[in-house]
Write a structure and sequence with these properties.
By secondary structure, this protein is of the alpha/beta class. The chain has a single domain, classed as Thiamin diphosphate (ThDP)-binding fold, Pyr/PP domains (Rossmann fold). It contains eight helices and six strands; from the N terminus they run ααβααβαβαβαβαβ. A six-stranded parallel β-sheet has the order 2-1-3-4-6-5, sandwiched between helices. The chain starts with a helix and ends in a 16-residue tail after the last strand.
């Protein structure tokens, strides 16, 4: 799968949204906590392209990029961030707990590792009701310090649950650690980077197809921790 102009337009939309959000947050015009996710934009768009209707994505506190990539209305997103009851979450979720099942966003959670538990439960329900759906969990590299990470991977491997675990690694952890963990647990682990989009897209597509066949997959994605990694940072948004 080679990224096309729609891919980069969606990426640019995320960058533009977060730049404006940063200005408003600096001016104390946005209530609550807002976590930037601009560096996740290429990964978010790649995942949105491999998902099918009925699939659900669960993500951690950096959720805005994924909400936009999945097609959540920007008007609803702004309303949610401002705490208005006209939004899809009734103004209660903020950026830390965004949810929009109509677009495949199963939920976001600020607790490290929590998306894994949600994805595991969703996948188990799909297996029980024999649905041909995939549950995807996107978590940061610190998840390797939590018990739910190991427990979720073991259960998904033993029960052959349709779970795709994507670990966003911004170089805070050794690139070999997660792969070794997957090997010990008997789960295939693939290592990719957002600097090679066509290969990342192909890997996610292949892993998603394997998950639908009942094989849990683990993907470690090296993500740039700065905004300078985006090729669309110089576009004049005004």
């Amino acid at each position: 799968m080679i990224p096309d102009h729609k891919f980069f337009m969606k990426w640019a939309e995320i960058v533009a949204f977060e730049r404006r959000l940063r200005v408003l947050q600096t001016a104390s015009l946005i209530p609550g906590i807002v976590n930037a996710s601009q560096s996740d934009a290429p990964l978010a768009v790649c995942l949105s392209q491999v998902m099918q209707p009925g699939d659900l994505l669960f993500v951690d506190h950096r959720s805005i990029a994924y909400a936009i990539a999945l097609g959540m209305s920007l008007k609803d997103l702004w309303a949610e961030l401002y705490g208005r009851n006209s939004s899809v979450g009734g103004g209660w979720s903020g950026s830390l707990h965004l949810v929009d099942h109509s677009h495949g966003l199963g939920g976001a959670n600020g607790i490290v590792g929590a998306p894994l538990g949600w994805a595991l439960g969703s996948a188990l329900a799909d297996r029980v009701f024999q649905n041909d759906q995939v549950s995807i969990a996107v978590v940061g590299d610190r998840v390797t310090e939590t018990g739910i990470f190991y427990e979720s991977l073991q259960i998904s491997q033993r029960w052959s649950l349709p779970v795709l675990v994507v670990i966003r690694n911004n170089t805070h952890r050794s690139l070999d650690t997660i792969g070794k963990i997957g090997q010990l647990l008997g789960i295939p682990c693939h290592q990719e980077s957002t600097t090679c989009l066509d290969q990342l897209s192909n890997t996610l597509q292949t892993c998603t197809e394997r998950v639908r066949q009942g094989s849990a997959q683990l993907v470690e994605v090296h993500v740039s921790a700065t905004d300078e990694g985006s090729p669309v940072t110089k576009i004049p948004w005004h």
